[in-house]
Amino acid sequence: MDxxxxxxxxxGKKVRLADWDPDETLGMDRADAEARxxxxxxxxxxxxxxxxxxxxxxxxVVLQAMDAAGKxxxxxxxxxxxxxxxxxxxxxxxxxxxxxxxxxxxxIHRRTPRKGHIRVFNRSQYEDVLVVRVENIVPEEVWEKRYxxxxxxxxxxxxxxxxxxxxxxxxxxxxxxxxxxxxxTDPDRAWKFDASDFKKREQWPAYMEAYEDAITRCNTDExxxxxxxxNKKWFRLYVISQIIRDALEEMDPQLPPLKIxxxxxxxxxxxxxx
Length: 274
Ligand code: ATP
Ligand code: MG
Prior knowledge:
Distance between the termini: 55 Å
Bound molecules: adenosine-5'-triphosphate, magnesium ion
CATH topology: Rossmann fold
Helix content: 40-55%
Largest sheet: 5 strands, parallel
Number of helices: 12
Shape: globular
Number of domains: 1
Strand content: 5-15%
Number of strands: 5
CATH architecture: 3-Layer(aba) Sandwich
Radius of gyration: 21 Å
Structural class: alpha/beta
């Protein structure tokens, strides 16, 4: 089995996060993982160039995790060699009153990637069956219908040429404590502190259950979930870069051919026509 298939949640099978080790590194050492990340990041940059030039399909990467797992730094490292013209990142926060005046997918759908683009969702439609479920923001009969709505939505965008990859950054509760602590002690990180992070920690088991249901019920062939060990940053970055690289290689975007006969074009140039 290749490295990436190991982190793919098996479709049709109930996911139990207790079976997934957040400390896993598959025996790889840090230097090796960092070298592979470097190579993957460059390959992603070149593939994205082809995706953009082709202009027919797009890639959507959904990142979901408990707080402080490292979603932001993942984007920064994995997409560091991509032309900023071709990638957009959207962070979904608590919905505004304007967003709440529509169905839960409204704000999501308008931010799906256009053809040629990579779009990263930092949080996503899944918040509506995660925080919303755990916090009882809407009644069960409302969130219960959303799994199917999400599957239908993902199928729709996949059928119009969007490849979807969904990644759960699997951090342990202990490792999260260390990372939240850094927000309290490191002035560079203080701005990220959010009192609600501590409240969410108290509800850890309820969140794990909600994640297990979301991953199990919305794990389709066209929009698969990956569960990535996240406690070791270098391993997480390597695995996620590999997942994205593999998806783009499988898409195999094609550079369009020249739209003019080169001989004709040469004559035009020689004639001094602009
Ligand atoms: P970090 O992981 O670094 O803490 P973050 O993604 O939590 O970053 P924040 O600005 O701290 O970014 O928080 C965004 C908040 O918005 C999260 O607590 C998230 O649960 C919440 N949120 C997102 N979508 C929804 C939604 N549909 N309903 C309610 N809350 C939501
Ligand atoms: Mg937060």
